[in-house]
What we know:
With 677 residues, the protein is an all-beta fold. The longest helix has 7 residues, at 237-243.
Amino acid sequence: xxxxxxxxxxxxxxxxxxxxxxxxxxxxxxxxxxxxxxxxxxxxxxxxxxxxxxxxxxxxxxxxxxxxxxxxxxxxxxxxxxxxxxxxxxxxxxxxxxxxxxxxxxxxxxxxxxxxxxxxxxxxxxxxxxxxxxxxxxxxxxxxxxxxxxxxxxxxxxxxxxxxxxxxxxxxxxxxxxxxxxxxxxxxxxxxxxxxxxxxxxxxxxxxxxxxxxxxxxxxxxxxxxxxxxxxxxxxxxxxxxxxxxxxxxxxxxxxxxxxxxxxxxxxxxxxxxxxxxxxxxxxxxxxxxxxxxxxxxxxxxxxxxxxxxxxxxxxxxxxxxxxxxxxxxxxxxxxxxxxxxxxxxxxxxxxxxxxxxxxxxxxxxxxxxxxxxxxxxxxxxxxxxxxxxxxxxxxxxxxxxxxxxxxxxxxxxxxxxxxxxxxxxxxxxxxxxxxxxxxxxxxxxxxxxxxxxxxxxxxxxxxxxxxxxxxxxxxxxxxxxxxxxxxxxxxxxxxxxxxxxxxxxxxxxxxxxxxxxxxxxxxxxxxxxxxxxxxxxxxxxxxxxxxxxxxxxxxxxxxxxxxxxxxxxxxxxxxxxxxxxxxxxxxxxxxxxxxxxxxxxxxxxxxxxxxxxxxxxxxxxxxxxxxxxxxxxxxxxxxxxxxxxxxxxxxxxxxxxxxxxxxxxxxxxxxxxxxx
Length: 677
């Protein structure tokens, strides 16, 4: 109810009263029928009578003017107008609307009055809502419905990655829906997906409305890829030919794994393969990939599985295979001269190949062959005498002697090569057979001692003892007692921190070298020819080792340098240290200071600033910056506070000062040296 008094001389004695009321509501039409009426209320002084006046009515956005008759008495209430309206509610069932009624009497001292009010209607029950949890494809999903009226029934529908269909009809408050298994086919690369459930609300045959709710469905964990079988074959065709594909050989075999019957599940595809040798760090991630050579023997387990596009892995398949032990053929022999003229070679053989037995049968064979050439020659000729042979039932010879077929003059040396092979690999062993052993022999070219002379003026077999000097090219060779080494190989060693300074063919100029290191050490020389030699000095504690090389072509020694310096510090390398000692003092080579006062930046060929070595740039400070050393403002006009004031006249006065801040990150200084030679 709302009221208003009239304007005019006597208007205060007259009141306009407007009221509204709901007559009925239609759930199906989502409408309310509303009655609106207007009444005049008079006091003991007011009695307008016999007047017709316009009544302007605005309801819910619409308007109309009605001519009403006014015939009231004092102290009375008189109905002047009444009408009903159909008001359509909002989609959610709620509704409020405005009512405005104006009566213009404008007669006998009464003016006009206007009543305005907002009317809130009762909400009409509308479409029901639903709630769901997370479901699993192939299992039930509970759908609970929150309805506004017990008269409502519902049809439930779904939408899922392009699929749609009806879940149930005539549902009251809940239902249980088994999510179809083929929903998994629509999400082959994911373990879950999101769909929509629509709730259509009906009252009788009339559809009240529609609401929706999203749901998540997970692919069941049992829906994973499968692997039917694997086959394991040997990529070493020689081994496979001899042993078949069910047995493998240590070191030589390289098994290949082929996956059979690999399938995805619920629309997924196979994206990954894996096979491994259990307990070994050998695996492959390819169908048809190899596991690598196996340096062990016995029964091994190969385990395989596949992965699908959802990232799920199949149950693994195990396959056991046998790896037989294998080693390369082993050969050793000695050759002695025999026969009346010492022209026969008798070979004392020790040979062994790996026995390979499958199903009780020896499958490997041992074959031994020899070839001979004069010493220093590469023209070897096969000698397949009694010492050679092929054995299929035995796998070793131990100190077994047999002759070669050829005849080899006693006054010449020969090289004998033995070749031991099996079904898969071979090994060689080489022996030099000297001339016949005699006390002294001679010919027009020279003398042989304890051997037939073959080369040089004096050809000696055995140790030589000299009581006197040895002169080479009119120069004496300095001689020292051996402390270690093998004189037959020309290796000499001497203990001491001071070595004699001798030029020419001997130990060379050594004294300058020892200025680099204090303390005792071991000095050794190894001569291969009169010109070519290597020399090494090692400190007693093993902490330092220096060496140099004497060139065969020039006869000159190189500088003494730390052993390996040319490998780990080649020319152009940078050495960083916290001491200011030139590295040439403790490792040799030529070094110069590098990068003083600068930081190092890696070369980047794609950046013009850094596309080559030794480019420089940058600065320790940032220049061309200024900072303001004062504030500006107006001293009196406080209403301008917080504003920037720019003068229209030229003003050269400035409170700026130069500012050069540091451009350096935190640092620590070191010495850097670059090797130049």
